[in-house]
Each structure stands twice: as C-alpha cells, then as structure tokens.
UniProtKB/TrEMBL annotation:
<protein>
    <submittedName>
        <fullName>Nitroreductase</fullName>
    </submittedName>
</protein>
<comment type="similarity">
    <text>Belongs to the nitroreductase family.</text>
</comment>
<dbReference type="Pfam" id="PF00881">
    <property type="entry name" value="Nitroreductase"/>
</dbReference>
<dbReference type="InterPro" id="IPR000415">
    <property type="entry name" value="Nitroreductase-like"/>
</dbReference>
<feature type="domain" description="Nitroreductase">
    <location>
        <begin position="75"/>
        <end position="161"/>
    </location>
</feature>
<keyword id="KW-0560">Oxidoreductase</keyword>
<dbReference type="InterPro" id="IPR029479">
    <property type="entry name" value="Nitroreductase"/>
</dbReference>
<dbReference type="GO" id="GO:0016491">
    <property type="term" value="F:oxidoreductase activity"/>
</dbReference>
Length: 198
C-alpha cells in the first residue's frame, strides 16, 4: 500500500513514499543481499568527525527464528501485534564516546538517526517497508543482543515486504488506511529567528 506524502512542492519520490506502515507480508522474506544493501546505506550516513557511532544488530525471522523470537519478546504488546509479520528487526545503538580521542560525543544519537533514515530510505528503494519504533524494553533487548554497557540503545526498526491493511486487525487496520499527517511548515520552520515566518 502506498501513501505518498502530500507536500507544498514536489520532493523526491524516495522520501515521499517512505512511511512507517505496520502491514507486513509474512509470506515474503528479505534476502541477504537486501539486508547488506540496507546496512550499506546506513554505513554511508554523515557523522560528526566521520566517527560513525552507529552499531546495528540484525535479527532475521526465517534465518534465525530463535534469535528473532527473543528480540520480539522484548517488544511492548501493541508492537508485537503487528511486528510479528516483519522479516527483520534491526537494533540501532550509539557509541557515546568518540573513537578518535576518547571524549564524549554529544551528537552520537543524532548521527545514528541519520544512519537509520538512510536504512529506511534504502528500504523504499528496494520495495520494502520499515518502521522505526521505541516500544520495547531496552535493557531486555540489550541482554538479548549482548550490547556492551558503553553503548546506548537508540531504537528498533522492523523491516519487511509491505502488505495490504487487511492483514491487520481492527484499530491497526484503521491506522494503516488513515491519511498521513504532518504539521505545516510554518509551525516547524522559521526564517532567521524563532517564530519568524519563512
């Protein structure tokens, strides 16, 4: 199902078509080549001093069902209701210490967001759908993934092939069919000074 963004002026289709759907087709799997493609896109994101603070842990539902189930078990019930059909779960972690000088990196999570968005856009390019989320137990997921204490758990991304909303029940199907909404530019963007209209 496609729900392109409604914009004031045209934007690139890759961006316009990216949205966080919940209807995944559990009969189709994400290939290893597609997984590598997603991670390569993330790897080439910009970062402060080129430090690349992101780290990813990937669980594949059909290639590692036990691992995927352990990661899945850390999700909140609302997310479990729709994530159960996704092929991949991708954990995004941030290294809060610069590798080049050992000092704190205040921009690590920002950089991880850029890498995660690259991954999500690459998913669109591959005909896949991604849904970043925060509804999980971070410490339980840290234990499942064996993430060292130094790293901050940032987010989890479900990835898979899109399906029609009919695969979802009730409220979830309604959410999937609902139009996409964003605040107007005038509320979010200013010209030279906070509150000054563009």
């Amino acid at each position: 199902m496609k729900k392109p963004a409604v914009t004031e002026v045209p934007i690139h289709p890759l961006i316009a078509e990216r949205w966080s759907g919940r209807a995944f087709d559990e009969t189709k799997t994400v290939t290893r080549e597609q997984v590598i493609s997603l991670l390569e896109a993330a790897r080439w994101a910009p970062s402060c001093y080129g430090d690349q603070p992101w780290r990813f842990v990937v669980w594949h539902r059909t290639q590692d069902p036990q691992g995927w189930e352990k990661a899945f078990a850390t999700l909140w019930p609302f997310n479990q209701a729709w994530v159960k059909r996704a092929s991949l779960l991708v954990l995004v972690c941030a290294d809060p210490i610069f590798s080049y000088n050992g000092e704190p990196n205040a921009w690590a999570e920002y950089d991880c967001g850029a890498a995660a968005e690259n991954l999500c856009l690459q998913a669109v390019a591959l005909g896949l759908m991604s849904h970043p989320m925060a509804g999980f137990d971070p410490e339980a997921l840290r234990a499942v993934a064996g993430v060292p204490e130094r790293y901050k758990i940032v987010s989890l991304i479900a990835v898979g092939h899109p399906a029609e909303p009919d695969v979802l029940d009730g409220e979830l199907a309604e959410k999937e069919r609902a139009p996409r909404e964003r605040r107007p530019l005038a509320e979010l963007c200013f010209a030279g000074k906070w509150g000054k209209s563009l």
